[in-house]
Design the sequence.
């Protein structure tokens, strides 16, 4: 989604904004722009297309001089990607210039009202209504804070606004509702950013803005105000993420680098709750009493995080006997489902900002349900609003297609499952100790699989021109099939479907053609033969049969066109291993097709709109 930056200090703003926007490129965007305030005038440069086009046009920033400015990468929602619709947008006489992430839902109504007051509109964006509304109040109040507080009362929807006022030298203003905004504090300079990775090279001292909060930067001075305009006090936090973690480190793509970071992500995430031979969740708000009282678990998430939750559903249910429902956040938020007051809602999100996931979590809270966030980004909205948070330790994830955060989410869920089982007595101590050992052995096994990636690279070349693929599995293997299929389609644009193996005969089988890739995930011993027979049905209709199974599994060894064995593990944790070849296959097909693996078309890293 859109990337946002603000800077006030002694250095030239344009260079800092361009460099910061470059670090936000991974979020996905279709146009870029900056605005710089100098000598009572605001100069704007923006265009459709890559940041590089903008950089060249303004001679790497030299044409736009000044030490106070704002920047934006746009992911179009209202109005096609174009020079005109690119941000920043301005008020009619350039008094206020603004960048925006989010959606002004009542923009038509606001445009109508402002048109009656004499404003004209030049873009198709919802954002233009916001900048003109702020300008309208500013002309009455002659005070940015008063103008912003009045305007946000009229605006419906979600927003992160960052603004310049031409009469306010050195000042950058920001306001947020339901979308992230972070203020960074340096020496004699300060920053605003939608994502901490944009400013990590300049400062690690940051403030996380609360919902409906307003901020003003003036060189090194950062001030905060509530929605009524009263000053508020905030504590500074220090970001511990390694800024090099957001570099490619010798890999061709971030995705491949992150695939290789999975063993570490899994180890660190489990290590965060495993101390002196025990899983301890008390810091996550889950002491033994709380665990015993859980009557039901709702796991709520989107996309790959949902797929991690789907694995967790099987694992937690089987180990703990607690009923678990996996729910898509975008559906859950609008359902009138009777909810059990003693339930626990587990909210899974890498970014901690996904609009649907956040709304679903708020819905669970309104229903009096305790919420636990499994979140990667420290200080993100879900992390701060959940009753408690279990941070995954994946570190910054840059590639749009998630890999290491998904793997870290899985292991966080395994930790919950084993601990709940132990406290509720569904497993004895010996069995828990054995499962913990299995979890601890996963990182080494993940690395073993990566060592065998060459065979998948070769295999991928066969599917350069493929049109369709199926991924089949049952139980945990079905949940992994969903993730494998998503990895394939989102980066290689090869249409692919995940099918619960038993469902194939009920319709999808009609799509199988000669040579079509049909991948079967076969790791659940009690279901080997079931899925194997569904794969044979695909083979007899001409499908190319790829089997991902555990060492020692003989299923389809003679019939499959290609078999990839992952090391053996307890079947509850097989997803952590079987997903790796599927990530690699998606990656290699995309590379063979010469696609932009890290920034697939139409996708954004953090989906902050509905
Ligand atoms: C797929 C992918 C997305 C995200 C989804 C949820 O590779 O990355 O499907 O998993 O958009 O995002 P988070 O986890 O940030 O809530």
Sequence:
């Amino acid at each position: 989604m859109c990337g946002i930056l603000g800077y006030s200090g002694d250095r030239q703003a344009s260079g800092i904004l361009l460099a910061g926007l470059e670090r936000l490129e991974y979020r996905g965007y279709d146009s870029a722009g900056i605005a710089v305030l100098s000598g009572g005038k605001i100069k704007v440069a923006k265009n459709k297309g890559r940041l590089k086009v903008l950089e060249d046009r303004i001679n790497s920033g030299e044409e736009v001089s000044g030490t106070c400015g704002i920047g934006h990468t746009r992911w179009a929602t209202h109005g096609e990607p174009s020079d005109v619709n690119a941000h920043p947008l301005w008020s009619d006489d350039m008094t206020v210039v603004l960048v925006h992430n989010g959606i002004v839902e009542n923009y038509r109504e606001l445009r109508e009202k402002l048109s009656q007051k004499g404003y004209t509109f030049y873009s198709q964006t919802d954002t233009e209504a916001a900048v003109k509304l702020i300008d309208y109040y500013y002309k009455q109040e002659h005070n940015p804070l008063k103008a912003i507080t009045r305007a946000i009362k009229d605006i419906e929807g979600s927003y992160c606004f960052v603004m310049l006022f031409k009469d306010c030298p050195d000042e950058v203003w920001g306001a947020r509702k339901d979308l992230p905004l972070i203020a960074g504090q340096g020496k004699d300079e300060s920053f605003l950013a939608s994502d901490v990775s944009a400013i990590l090279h300049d400062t690690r001292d940051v403030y996380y803005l609360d919902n409906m909060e307003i901020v003003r930067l003036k060189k090194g001075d950062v001030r905060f105000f509530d929605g009524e305009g009263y000053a508020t006090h905030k504590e500074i936090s220090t970001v511990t993420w390694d800024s090099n973690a957001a570099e490619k480190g010798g890999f061709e793509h971030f995705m491949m680098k992150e695939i290789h970071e999975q063993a570490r992500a899994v180890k660190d995430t489990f290590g965060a709750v495993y101390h002196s031979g025990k899983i301890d969740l008390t810091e996550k708000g889950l002491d033994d009493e709380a665990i015993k009282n859980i009557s039901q678990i709702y796991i709520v998430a989107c996309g790959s995080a949902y797929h991690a939750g789907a694995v967790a559903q099987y694992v937690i249910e089987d180990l703990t006997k607690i009923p678990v429902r996996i729910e898509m956040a975008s559906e859950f938020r609008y359902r009138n489902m009777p909810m059990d007051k003693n339930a626990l809602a587990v909210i899974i999100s890498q970014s901690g900002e996904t609009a649907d996931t956040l709304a679903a979590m708020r819905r669970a809270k309104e229903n009096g349900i305790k919420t636990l966030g499994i979140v990667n980004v420290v200080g993100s909205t879900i992390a701060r609003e959940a009753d408690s948070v279990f941070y995954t330790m994946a570190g910054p994830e840059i590639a749009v297609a998630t890999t290491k955060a998904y793997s870290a989410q899985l292991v966080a869920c395994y930790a919950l499952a084993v601990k709940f089982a132990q406290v509720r007595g569904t497993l004895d101590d010996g069995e828990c100790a054995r499962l913990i050992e299995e979890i601890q052995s996963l990182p080494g096994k993940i690395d073993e699989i990566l060592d065998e990636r060459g065979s998948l690279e070769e295999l991928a070349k066969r599917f350069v021109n493929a049109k369709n693929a199926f991924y089949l599995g049952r139980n945990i293997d079905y949940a992994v099939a969903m993730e494998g299929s998503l990895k394939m389609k989102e980066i290689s644009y090869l249409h692919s479907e995940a099918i619960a193996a038993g469902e194939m005969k009920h319709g999808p089988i009609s799509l199988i053609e000669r040579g079509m890739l049909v991948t079967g995930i076969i790791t659940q011993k009690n279901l080997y033969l079931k899925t194997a027979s569904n794969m044979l049905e695909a083979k007899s209709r001409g499908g190319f049969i790829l089997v991902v199974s555990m060492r020692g599994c003989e299923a389809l060894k003679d019939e499959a066109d290609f078999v990839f064995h992952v090391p053996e593990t307890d079947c509850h944790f097989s997803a952590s291993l079987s997903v790796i070849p599927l990530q690699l296959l998606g990656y290699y097909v995309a590379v063979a097709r010469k696609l932009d693996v890290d920034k697939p078309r139409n996708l954004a890293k953090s989906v902050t709109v509905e």
Observations:
- The CA atoms of residues 397 and 405 lie 7 Å apart.
- The mean pLDDT is 94.
- The first helix runs from residue 13 to 24.
